[in-house]
Amino acid sequence: MTTNQGLKISEDEFSLKAGERGPTLLEDFHFREKMTHFDHERIPERIVHARGFAAHGEFQPYESMKEYTKAGFLQSPSKKTPVFVRFSTVAGSRGSGDLARDARGFSTKFYTDEGNYDLVGNNIPVFFIQDAIKFPDVIHAVKPEPHNEIPQAASAHDTFWDFVANNQESAHMVMWTMSDRAIPRSYRMMEGFGVHTFRFVNEKGEAHFVKFHWKPVLGTHSVVWDEAQKVNGKDPDFHRGDLWEAIENGNYPEYELGVQLVKEEDEHSFDFDILDPTKLWPEEDVPVKIVGKMTLNKNTDNYFAETEQVAFHPGHVVPGIDFTNDPLLQGRLFSYTDTQLIRLGGPNFHELPINRPVCPFFNNQRDGYGRQTINKGPVAYHKNSMADNTPEPATKEEGGFEHYQERVEGHKIRARSDSFKDHFSQATLFWNSMSAAEKEHIINAFSFELGKVESKDIRQQVVDMFANVSLDLAKGFAKAIGVKLPEGPGSSVTKSSPALSQENTKKKPDTRKAAVLIGDGFNGKEINAVLKELKKLGVQTEIVSDSQGTIKGSDDTELEVDHTFLTADSVLFDAVYAVGGSRAEKTFYRQAAQFVHEAFFHYKPIGASHEGEALLQLDNMKESPGVVIGGTPREFSKNFADAIASHRFWEREVI
């Protein structure tokens, strides 16, 4: 292995650092060449996170965080800060579907009075690798294979799993991507994480290590894999449309900002390295302190000008927020600016309206592609006398940014700290924390993904690797993919973290969609009463029938049809309410039966009344959990809304 100049490379695993746990050094020409080449591989689409969707909003603290940080936007509960949030998939191109099994980007730009602050995160709190020098490798592995550009937006292929098996630091992240977290129900029902360990620094210069969390007010929910595949076919813009529609309807998505804080003196008090980006801080050990709320309340006016041109960078910070020596974060501080230079055509991407700070900015930078500022006068250097030495650096009292003064010493070395070498204990922690249904979904995900891998040797390597996480897990998918069952003691880790299971998330019916299957001759008075009650309870209903236009009830009540069975599908709804009608034709019931059966198969809440109850005879649905029938309109609506809040009924037997 050599550089592009032919220099032989002695190490390709570790970036050059000042000490094993020290910061990455700018003189690491090999890392810079490798990362620069990677950052410039695609024009003009983002290399990763290409398929995104975004919205505007505002953030407001619940309390002052002055004790921990001097960041201005976190000082007062009366302070509102504009934000722009971009959600995205990671692996797929701009033309891929929304429901790929993938990590999701969750990046927030705060337009603060002290400059822009970017919290550039994901919906998973850890990552595949520990050192940024390996980022091109993991993305090369997960992207479509270069000889045939297949498969799109999928990790179910040989090169990705070959990377996993031979880079075992990926074990924890793989557990998350094989879980339901990788196929979210909605951007509105998805957690966000800063991933890295950062620092809060207060006015006294005192520091705390900090991890950032976004907690959706609606709870964290997912779809099932069969459903995800069908949604991608029926509506590849499902997540985009869901976010856009919610904001247009005034159902503004809300997320609470939480922080985990660790004192400087407690840095080495855990059984893992808190700077390791493949590790999380269990919430039971380090509680999440909820400090504010973000509300997304405005859609974009122009997708390209805003969503496509927005430029995030983890190095865009404000006084009171600083970095640590996390080697993945250190590399990202270089990579993001480099990426924007090629993607947005030059150094002036900060002048695009979506990236421009709301506070004034002055410096001696001039010219370049896309320059919009017309600078006056001859002076563009520091120090100077011709312009009274302006602009000049701000003092600490004036809000000038000062890096946290951390003692760094050590030999220049390409290595990784021994404290980063445990790759399996937190992967086991994640497995131990899952419910029985979630564990089954993870086993099924491994079985599907590895079932697409052609090399039996790679399949066996992955099974043997994940036997270190859990023998039950590895044996569960080994049989399905036709390789030898693993042997060995497995993991001795027994600890679990209930916060990691989506079974323990918030459950409410608000903004959930129910398809109402109605045919001619329905009971108008009663059905109208149910629809009104469901609306009061926060459930959104849409009428589905066998033709568009209006349908008449038995009492000549009329309802406008929103969708036909041809344009709608059960996978696009959270629940189904089967009503039927005394004058509905056989074709209606044939299509409605298929609609209801698929929703039942995906463990969704089912409601039925009147002629619609006949649709429950298949699979003995009436006796199953999550199926609601009977009662007054108010009683039925309350029971149905409660079932919708439960999201899924995993205990249901489906055929």
Overall average pLDDT: 95
The count of strands amounts to 20
CATH domain class name of the largest domain: Mainly Beta
Q: Radius of gyration in whole Å, from Cα?
A: 27 Å
**Weakly predicted, low-confidence segments:** none
Task: Write up this protein.
This protein is α+β, with helices and mostly antiparallel strands. It folds into 3 domains: 40-126 and 179-351, Catalase HpII,  Chain A, domain 1 (Beta Barrel); 428-503, Hemocyanin, N-terminal domain, CATH 1.20.1370.20; 507-645, Rossmann fold. Helix content is 25%, strand content 17%. It is built from 15 helices and 20 strands. The chain has helices at 29-39, 135-142, 158-166, 171-177, 225-234, 238-248, 303-308, 327-343, 425-433, 436-451, 456-466, 471-478, 524-536, 586-601, 633-645, and strands at 16-18, 52-61, 81-89, 104-112, 115-122, 192-193, 198-201, 207-216, 254-263, 289-299, 321-322, 412-414, 513-518, 540-545, 550-552, 558-560, 563-564, 575-580, 606-608, 627-629. The strands form 4 sheets. Strands 2, 3, 4, 5, 6, 7, 8, 9, 10 and 11 form a 10-stranded antiparallel beta sheet that branches. A 6-stranded parallel beta sheet has the order 17-14-13-18-19-20, sandwiched between helices. A hairpin with a 5-residue loop joins strand 7 and strand 8 (207-216). Helix 1 packs across helix 8 (327-343), helix 10 (436-451) crosses helix 12 and helix 11 (456-466) packs antiparallel against helix 12 (471-478). The longest helix is centred in the middle third of the chain and has 17 residues, at 327-343. The chain is globular, with a radius of gyration of 27 Å. The mean pLDDT is 95. Residues 491-503 have a biased composition (Polar residues). This is Catalase. There is a cross-link at residues 313-336 (3'-histidyl-3-tyrosine (His-Tyr)). Belongs to the catalase family. HPII subfamily. Residues 488-510 are annotated as: Disordered.
